[in-house]
Design brief:
The chain has 485 residues and is of the alpha+beta class. The chain folds into 3 domains: 61 residues, SH3 type barrels (Roll), CATH 2.30.30; 332 residues, Metallo-beta-lactamase, Chain A (4-Layer Sandwich), CATH 3.60.15; 37 residues, no CATH class. A 9-stranded mixed β-sheet has the order 15-12-11-10-9-8-32-33-34. A 6-stranded mixed β-sheet has the order 16-19-20-21-22-25. A 5-stranded antiparallel β-sheet has the order 6-5-4-1-7, with no helix packed on it. Strand 10, helix 1 and strand 11 form a beta-alpha-beta unit. Helix 2 crosses helix 4. The chain starts with a strand and ends in a 5-residue tail after the last strand.
């Protein structure tokens, strides 16, 4: 039978999915897609989130939402987006599964979403957008384009219509981001940010499939070359985009959903060439030229910022009016790094800011300064009931939770009759220099709730939600889009 969507549930924006004995087996959110199996009076049996249960018939609607899933990929970025035309888009994919602490990355969630939740025969993406060429943004694409997750028995098929990138590569030898030239650019539209007209610019840029299949010189072999081979094979169409394009192809000002491309800034040099400005070190330059997208739907505006830093934010503000960055929801720049220009945070004025960051990393993200600035310069919102809400801050890392227990008995997989009590067993981890630890003293993670943040809107109302630690219910905040309190 056809798929329908969960409505706003009379302003509750979530509903319990009940089994045949009326026990709650899951919670469904506003906009969740369900497949109707059967009907019984005022109730319908549906398949949703890989489960089957009952909900009230009158809460279903034929109309879907603009949905964004800020996926918990640890230290990295990954956003899966559904537009109301039922097209799916992926912006970044975090690191690869093998480098994840949990060994489960973006490909795991995306496979589950398409094959188990939506009950499709493959992962089908209209657009994959790689904001910039850092491994914590593209590593997961290697898994995804290969159709593999951490378990070898769970391979999957994938189709990708378009692959968009910022034009920058990763080469084996110097200059590793691409050949540069010195040059001068025309007067900048806004000159308050101390951006010089004279600088060095990367002009060795990637474009279509051929530039990935047959580069001008060898790519970095460990991770970027494998990605490039897959980019040359999996997507049907490949091209770079920049602020010069203004809109993501197919989503211009005449579309129901408008996707503005605000960065990177591809500058015209006096030599007649175009290039991406050197912003500082290799890392700063790579991060700073992230693709920046603003998604407009109805009254709602959502900003995806990649790994912008201070100098790149100043460059963006030198080319765009401040109002271009004013939004309801913003993905915090660079995992909550404090390498920011406060004027950019002020320009965003986000009612809700979401930071994607991870455990076990040396960066101490998100930093107190950026969290404080996001709250200080964020805008208040008006709830659907007319109440004033303070600026909202979300972190995938803070939303993540682990349930711990202590082991009691270990048994053999090949012979389950062979058991040993943990007080008589020791275990050594795969970490370098690890020592044996008595298993009776070793906490074991028995459950992991990923810190996925849901953002959904009908163009009038915006919902932000994440799963609670104990009940698998959701904490839900809903406010009016584009409305000042």
């Amino acid at each position: 039978m056809k798929r329908e969507f969960i409505g706003d549930v009379a302003g509750k924006f979530k509903v319990a999915l009940k089994d045949d004995s009326n026990k709650t087996i899951a919670y469904l959110l506003w906009g969740d897609s369900v497949r109707v199996i059967s009907k019984s009076g005022s109730m319908v049996k549906v398949s949703a989130r890989g489960r089957v249960g009952w909900i009230a018939k009158d809460i279903l609607t034929d109309t879907g939402l603009l949905e964004l899933y800020v996926i918990d990929v640890g230290q990295g970025d990954c956003v899966l987006m559904r537009t109301p035309n039922n097209a799916w888009h992926l912006i970044d994919a975090g690191v690869s599964n093998e480098t994840q602490m949990t060994k489960k990355g973006a490909a795991n969630f995306i496979r589950w979403k398409f094959l188990e939740d939506l009950e499709m025969d493959r992962v089908k993406l209209e657009n994959v957008i790689l904001s910039h060429m850092d491994f914590d943004h593209y590593g997961g694409l290697i898994d995804l384009f290969s159709g593999k997750v951490s378990r070898p028995d769970r391979t999957f098929d994938i189709s990708v219509e378009n692959f968009y990138h910022n034009g920058m590569g990763r080469f084996k030898d110097s200059p590793k981001l691409g050949t540069t030239i010195s040059g001068t650019v025309p007067l900048l539209p806004y000159d308050d940010y101390r951006i010089s007209r004279d600088d060095h610019f990367i002009i060795e840029l990637l474009s279509g499939k051929a530039s990935f299949k047959k580069p001008s010189r060898p790519f970095e072999p460990k991770s970027f070359a494998p990605l490039a081979r897959l980019v040359g094979k999996i997507p049907k169409h490949v091209r770079s985009i920049s602020a010069s394009d203004q809109f993501l192809p197919g989503y211009d000002q005449n579309s129901n959903v408008v996707i503005r491309v605000l960065g990177p800034i591809l500058e015209h040099i006096n030599s007649g060439k175009v290039g991406l400005r050197e912003l500082g070190s290799e890392s700063i330059t790579c991060n700073g030229h992230s693709i920046v997208l603003r998604i407009d739907y109805g009254k709602s505006r959502i900003l995806l910022t990649g790994d912008l830093n201070t100098i790149s934010q100043r460059l963006l503000l030198s080319y765009h009016d401040l109002l271009e960055f004013s939004v309801d929801v913003a993905k915090g720049c660079h995992h909550g790094s404090d390498d920011i220009d406060i004027r950019f945070v002020r320009a965003m004025k986000a009612r809700s800011t979401i930071v994607s960051s991870g455990d076990n990393e040396d960066y101490a993200h998100p930093r107190p300064r950026v969290m404080g600035a996001s709250a200080r310069y964020g805008r208040e919102a008006k709830s659907v009931k007319g109440h004033t809400l303070p600026p909202l801050l979300y972190s995938t890392e803070l939303a993540r939770s682990v349930q711990l227990a202590y082991a009691d008995t270990v048994r053999s997989v090949s012979d389950r009759t062979r058991q040993i009590e943990c007080k008589d067993a020791e275990l050594k981890s795969v970490e370098r220099g690890a020592k044996f630890i008595r298993m009776e003293n070793l906490p074991v993670a028995t459950d992991l709730i990923y810190g996925l943040i849901n953002v959904r809107t009908d163009g009038e109302r915006i919902m932000c939600a994440y799963m609670k630690e104990q009940s698998q219910d959701f904490d839900v905040q809903v406010f009016q889009a584009g409305v000042e309190p």
